[in-house]
Write a structure and sequence with these properties.
The protein is mostly helical and 466 residues long. It is built from 20 helices and five strands. The N and C termini lie far apart (52 Å).
């Protein structure tokens, strides 16, 4: 955690943030230009944060006065009623900024003729990673086929939905009794009954509310009470701009503040950088710039929130009403999955691969639509990117979103996000063929709240030509 010396008013962190220079780990994007692009992006984020510090004259971290601590503690469960002046704060970056960086990734090893097939790729992503084709996706997501029962499918497998739901529910109860994480993971590939989802997800994620877990959460809360971080205001701002304006999630505003403020202080989150190609930002005690023994990670968890970050937590509030349990579930889902949605790497579930998979599916299986949108300046990825970065949170109805997230946990993969994004375009293809501008295409796809996830996925994967 940030030490008291680093957080005090007198000896606060330097306003200049220096990025750690490390060898990039396990990215698979080996070219010098790609490493440079990743490093430049990380520096850009830090520069944005640093500029905000300087403009507002606010330190990165400072100790709260005793009165401030008492006030925050007294309103801990009703922080949503607080209306701090956030007008001068701005998101450090938005998904569209990140997309521009991904569009500029290049691998010079493939610029010539080493992969002639990839030269036919006309999308925005120009890194030739290996992504699955439809036959491979069909095999990988085999349990989603038209002959396998699924929750929320009215005519699945020629079995009356009530009969399937009752039998599936009984099987789910047996899985919970057995406390077998692998069995639970296999089970949720067909969807979770609403009443069992919270326990099944906790089983898959190996989360149990032990006394030490609750104590750990209370320690994080204590750090929030004692120290004020600049990222706190970014978190407040993001919740106000996103979840607070969402018809599904505004009621969870207090929970979101509690979870996200504690998350920012949690140094255990740093462990995911061991298998993440990104590097956590560091800052230095004032006057000790460049001296590693005086460096601390900032924020302590190494994650600078961006516009929409709070939407990773919001849907979980429907499942867990005990703050420490909600916190554990979110942290585990983030370090297993969601960090990949805003990190540059070649992992199959990384955002670069998801973008390429989406574009490849459209170009291969809906070429007329792909070329039409491209010709009118409405590259499909410009529309779908925000869906994938937020794992569709805030775009789908919550019941449909949770069915989608069932499959993320069940298949231990984020690839289904790209498949669903392509399926949405296929579903609206007739309307999209008539548009003549990016704005018109965005209007056609502006509201996804009425879509049914499972029929879209099944039709796209198993009822279209290969």
């Amino acid at each position: 955690m940030l030490g008291q010396e680093g957080c005090s008013r007198g000896g606060g962190l330097s306003l200049t943030i220096a990025q750690v220079v490390q060898r990039l780990k396990g990215s698979g994007l080996h070219s010098q230009l790609e490493r440079q692009a990743r490093g430049n992006w990380e520096k850009r984020i830090l520069k944005s944060l640093n500029s905000m510090c300087n403009e507002l004259g606010i330190p990165l971290a400072q100790k709260r006065s005793m009165n401030e601590q008492k006030e925050l503690l007294s309103k801990w469960n009703e922080m949503g009623t607080d209306e701090p002046d956030l007008s001068l704060f701005r998101p450090v970056y938005a998904p569209k900024d990140f997309l521009e960086v991904l569009m500029n990734l290049r691998n010079p090893n493939y610029e010539n003729s080493e992969q002639p097939s990839f030269r036919n790729h006309l999308g925005l992503i120009q890194v030739p990673l290996k992504v699955k084709n439809i036959p491979e996706l069909k095999e990988y997501f085999g349990e989603l086929d038209l002959n396998t029962g699924q929750l929320d499918i009215d005519d699945s497998a020629n079995v009356p939905p009530e009969l399937f739901e009752n039998e599936h529910f009984c099987i789910g109860q047996k899985v919970l009794l057995g406390q077998d994480s692998a069995a639970a993971q296999q089970y949720v590939r067909q969807g979770c009954p609403t009443s069992l989802r919270a326990e099944l997800w906790a089983l898959i994620l190996n989360i149990s509310s032990q006394p030490e877990d609750i104590l750990y959460y209370e320690q994080l809360k204590s750090n929030v009470i004692q120290h004020d971080l600049l990222v706190d205001s970014l978190i407040y701002k993001d919740v106000k701009l996103t979840a607070s304006n969402d018809d599904y999630y505004f009621v969870f505003e207090d929970y979101l503040y509690q979870v996200l403020l504690c998350f920012s202080r949690d140094t255990s989150v740093l462990e995911h950088f061991e298998y993440n190609s990104a590097t956590p930002p560091k800052s230095y005690i004032r006057g000790k710039l460049g001296l590693e023994e005086y460096a601390v990670f900032y924020p302590p968890n190494g994650v600078i929130p961006f516009h929409g970050f709070s939407m990773y937590v919001a849907p979980l509030c429907f499942l867990y009403n005990e703050p420490s349990k909600l916190y554990q579930i979110f942290r585990e889902i983030y370090i297993r999955y969601f960090f990949r949605l805003h990190s540059i790497s070649s992992h199959p579930s990384g955002i670069v691969s998801l973008c390429l998979l989406f574009e490849t599916l459209l170009q291969t299986h809906l070429p007329q639509l792909f070329y039409h949108l491209r010709e009118i300046g409405a590259q499909p990825l410009r529309i779908s990117f925000k869906w994938m970065v937020r794992a569709f949170s805030g775009y789908l109805a919550t019941d449909q979103l949770l069915l989608l997230w069932d499959r993320i946990l069940g298949y231990n993969s984020l690839e289904i996000l790209a498949v669903l994004a392509a399926a949405v375009f296929a579903f609206r293809a007739v309307n999209l063929m008539e548009v003549t501008s990016l704005a018109a295409a965005e209007a056609v796809l502006a509201d996804l709240s009425t879509l049914k996830v499972m029929p879209l996925l099944q039709i796209f994967l198993f009822a279209t030509g290969t």
